[in-house]
Amino acid sequence: MATFGEQAEQLRAIASSENIPIGVLLSAQQQLDQVSGQVTGLIDSSSEHYNNVIGMCSAARDAVGNAIAALKQMETAIHDAADHHSR
Questions:
Q1: pTM
Q2: DSSP state for residue 8 in the 8-state scheme
Q3: 15 lies in which domain range?
Q4: 12-55, pLDDT tens digit by residue?
Q5: What is the CATH number of the domain that holds 59?
Q6: 87 vs 67: CA distance, rounded Å
Q7: Reduced to 3 states, what is the DSSP secondary structure of residue 20?
């Protein structure tokens, strides 16, 4: 059985950026912004297609933002658990 100190170190390792892919989701948000910009330049802003595409990009960006927030909360919770085990 691992000591509390060893468990704390294991928890900190789990909370590392390699395990919690926040950066990947930030990149996805940037890509969605690029798609929106490209669509804006190609489709007439008064068309129904424009509104559909931009609306879906916005919804996807919001969903990614929610996932980022959840991962950050998870990372914080893991760090809190590690801190607790360090005491």
A1: 0.80
A2: H
A3: 4-86
A4: 888 876 788 899 999 999 999 999 999 888 998 888 899 999 99
A5: 1.10.287
A6: 31
A7: coil
